[in-house]
Amino acid sequence: MQLRAVLFDVGDTLWHAPRPPRPAEFRKKAADRARAFLRDLGIPCPDPEVLARAAWDAMEDAMRAARSTDRVEPDYASVARAAAAAHGVSLSHSQAAALMEAIYISGGEGGKAAFPDARDTLLELRSRGFRLGIVTNRAFGGERFRSDLRELGLDIGWDAVAVSVEVGFLKPHPALFEHALAALELSPAEALMVGNSLAEDVSGAQVLGLATAWKRSRPDAEGVTPDFTFDQVSELLRWPPLKEAAR
Ligand SMILES: [Mg+2]
User: Fold this and answer.
1) Domain at 5-16+112-242, CATH homologous superfamily
2) Is 23-104 in CATH node 1.10.150?
3) How far is ligand 1, taken at its centre, from the CA of residue 87, in Å?
4) Considering the entire predicted model, what is its pTM?
5) 13 CA to middle of ligand 1, Å?
């Protein structure tokens, strides 16, 4: 195995939420933000809390449906817009997108923290000559995701970042892995995919021929065998194929 790059899932692989705010707290923050957002735009809404909840639930339902069918990313602003309309609130497409951004509670505020050994492991892999990429399923990309990475100390100068909502496909769809490989100008056999989902990360990458490392989690697929299984991110550094990058 001649590896030149390591691709990482993010959620529960590089960061997790060890102390998430209680659901009621999340809902209150989202409601407060929805209320302020709608007030600033002068859009009447009888119950911003109900609206925020409905838009968020609709987004999650759409993502779940896409994950279990064609893995094509839904247009979440359209989904939120329809949910708002069902509650009698008329939003444009861009207003619906902005509402979702407004009520999204992420990063440290969302209780997220990087695994303690994640940053040092990434830096050590880089110093061994590996190029590093992200392959992640998320409904929010753009600057928000980059600033969450910065806040959690995971802004290590990624060589490739493939975010499902930006690329248009969800793991395990091959297009998301291919997007990262194309950015790195590498073939699948030259890359390792690291993630905590057997179904999305390991199986998805294996279909294309990438090597795989699984951060042990509750298994979400049967009959999937990664090349390497670990508990702590830093264990990757002791796996022989990651001793140093192929030239
Ligand atoms: Mg994950």
Assistant:
1) HAD superfamily/HAD-like (3.40.50.1000)
2) yes
3) 33
4) 0.95
5) 6
